[in-house]
Specification:
Shape: globular
Order of helices and strands: EEHHHHHHHHEEHHEEHHH
Structural class: mainly alpha
Number of helices: 13
Strand content: 5-15%
Number of domains: 1
Distance between the termini: 94 Å
Length: 290
């Protein structure tokens, strides 16, 4: 499979074009969401370069810190990247970690909103559905690079991986679970869920709840998806992506519950707020004085 379109000495890499298509689609959806909320939608396009830059840097750093086991066996370790800077920045060959992309993009957005003196939580909510859409589109870049595939499978939708992209112990196995496809479909559904939340539950939500919901849904799906992955990123023998996903999902879910604790755990009907007890005590003292 060709890696891109050649125009003279230049090559437009399919992987990069797919990633950018996802970014533009995400920005367009975020623009629409901002207009729907009667906000200045131009902010989306103004912050886009910074969010994309932060996301790409974060994604690449995460990959460099947690290279998959097959690359480590070939000597492509974190130390290798640190001593080969040209390979470290070669993102067109693949190697972008979603956890780092979300963290880097969120940090860039936070710094941008601080500078513009606008609400970070509001705008991260607006961008969250677009983020899911960008992932749904971007995962097809993994199909082009024949990466992010799962365990061997004979299911009708299993994909064939060229021998040069197979792990050494699976050289004679042709078809595998298309993890990139599973994740792409899930992210489309997740985008729809987040958009539904913004419309149907708006009266119950606090700023930041949509993004926190994303930090529950996607990490939980990714946690279970990692069980099908052959080439996990191991740190100290532990699947780094799977462990981090579980921690993020539990932390985000806990934070949602804490933020809505008064609604989830309402006071008992016969339990009076503390300020009412104080007022009753003051009234009793005044009556005694009279």
């Amino acid at each position: 499979m060709a890696e891109g379109i050649r125009i003279g000495p230049l090559t437009l890499n399919y992987y990069g074009m797919i990633i950018m298509a996802g970014v533009i689609a995400a920005a367009a959806l975020s623009h629409y969401e901002a207009k729907r909320r009667k906000l200045n939608a131009d902010i989306v396009w103004d912050c886009l370069p910074w969010v994309v830059l932060g996301g790409v840097i974060g994604a690449r750093i995460w990959h460099i810190l947690t290279p998959p086991a097959s690359m480590v066996e070939q000597g492509v370790t974190t130390w290798y990247y640190l001593t080969h800077p040209l390979d470290a920045i070669a993102i067109w060959r693949g190697g972008l970690g979603i956890p780092g992309a979300v963290a880097g993009g969120a940090l860039a957005l936070y710094l941008y909103t601080r500078k513009r003196e606008i609400s970070f939580l509001l705008w991260v909510d607006i961008i969250a559905p677009g983020l899911a859409l960008a992932q749904a589109i971007g995962r097809w870049g993994n199909f082009i690079n024949q990466e992010v595939y799962g365990r061997p499978s004979n299911l009708p939708w299993a994909i064939t991986i060229d021998p040069r992209y197979r792990l050494p112990e699976y050289r004679d196995v042709a078809t595998y679970h298309p993890l990139f496809l599973y994740e792409s479909i899930f992210n489309l559904l997740n985008m729809g869920f987040l958009l539904w939340l913004t419309r149907k539950m708006a009266h119950k939500l606090k700023q930041g709840d949509i993004f926190l919901s994303y930090l529950v849904t996607y990490p939980m799906f990714r946690f279970f998806l990692e069980f099908l992955r052959l080439d996990a990123s191991l740190v100290g023998g532990v699947n780094a992506n799977q462990t981090l996903m579980l921690i993020i999902a539990l932390a985000a879910a806990g934070l949602i519950v804490w933020r809505h604790r008064e609604t989830i755990f309402p006071r008992q009907a016969n339990e009076k707020p503390e300020h009412e007890d104080i007022e009753n005590l003051e009234d009793a003292i005044e009556k005694n004085e009279e």
